[in-house]
């Protein structure tokens, strides 16, 4: 047996033992995640064991639709993610599917959300639930986008009260992620949305009429209101916000958050620059990189970034492909994989390769 083969065998046995032990723990009941007493990471309550968020963004634009149309697929994919070593999945339940009016929800959407909680509990994967997603342009709510700022904020408050009320009792919730990559200020003639990629826009502005308020003022007020809405119904689960790679914009918002969640994509040959950027998010709270991926670099640079980031971050989340890893591997074997297929497979392979190092199965 070669040295490499021997090492891979050891890694496999360690991962099997870890999955077996974790599986036994889930059978006895899933633990809730809390901030560690030293404020440098996370622990499971009640066991007190260290918890390391290591996972993916999942079904970013259609999670509730997928649950409604093919729940077996979601169950299968959670099992696939778990088998790959996943401990957390970031999900984005679409606001237009949950709200049918300013103060009215769709009961079927909440049923799907409860189903997702059950799938997560059964799989042993915690959820990072991102709010206020209006990503798909075709599904936008005209009544919502015509509101002024304060009415819009009130509707967002109602959304978060609804989510917290629905999810409060589930130990599967790792954290509520208030909004994806917000900007504080726009202008009265502009759009609430930005970050367009094809038929979707992933980012929102909090205000189009700042009225002499600074970005810090808006972030401070808005974040306080959303946190209060959640805490009205759920005093336990953690709260964060998905942040663009501009630490100066978000430091005020972080005052009310339990941990920090920047989105960082290293560039080819510039891994150390991304590590320097990551360090600027160190505000005395745990850091979970809520998005990363070999998007602007290859797998080698992404590996380097992830391993180096362990000195500063306590969690990491990539993106899970819509095609199963087995299908991607088959396409590669048969020579039918596209460049996009190859990139997705490179992430899945990397995730499984370094997972034991990121989660502590193998010491650094």
Low-confidence stretches: 1-28
CATH topology type: TIM Barrel
Number of helices: 13
Distance between the termini: 24 Å
* Architecture (CATH level 2) name: Alpha-Beta Barrel
Structure description:
- It is a single chain.
- The protein is globular and about 55 Å long.
- The protein has one domain: Glycosidases (TIM Barrel, Alpha-Beta Barrel), CATH 3.20.20.80.
- Strand 2 and strand 3 form a beta hairpin.
- By secondary structure, it is α/β, with parallel strands linked by helices.
- The protein starts with a helix and ends in a 5-residue tail after the last helix.
Quick recap of the structure?
The protein contains 13 helices and 16 strands.
